[in-house]
């Protein structure tokens, strides 16, 4: 399994981000989101980001996996997820 993971990672870089914008002010947050999107676009990297901020997920687009009640729901296109959110996301958003 480790060899397969190494081979897959060599084929496409992955940016692993855990709440990367949580402590940033609004202006720097926008700048850093743009930088991550630019890096991903230029390198073809996949971005795997953990966030509690729905706007961060929306800005980076792609697919989103919602984790609610300790369970991961199937991945969905981010725009579609927010256009027709499951109950757990509606509850979170208020």
From TrEMBL:
Superkingdom: Bacteria
Keywords from the named record: ATP-binding, Cell inner membrane, Cell membrane, Membrane, Nucleotide-binding, Translocase, Transport
InterPro entries: ABC_SmlMolc_Importer (IPR050093), P-loop_NTPase (IPR027417)
SUPFAM superfamilies in alphabetical order: P-loop containing nucleoside triphosphate hydrolases
Chain segments annotated as coiled-coil in the UniProt record: none
Keyword Isomerase: no
GO MF: ATP binding
Entry-linked PANTHER family: SPERMIDINE/PUTRESCINE IMPORT ATP-BINDING PROTEIN POTA, THIAMINE IMPORT ATP-BINDING PROTEIN THIQ
Protein name: Thiamine ABC transporter ATP-binding protein
UniProt organism field: Cereibacter changlensis
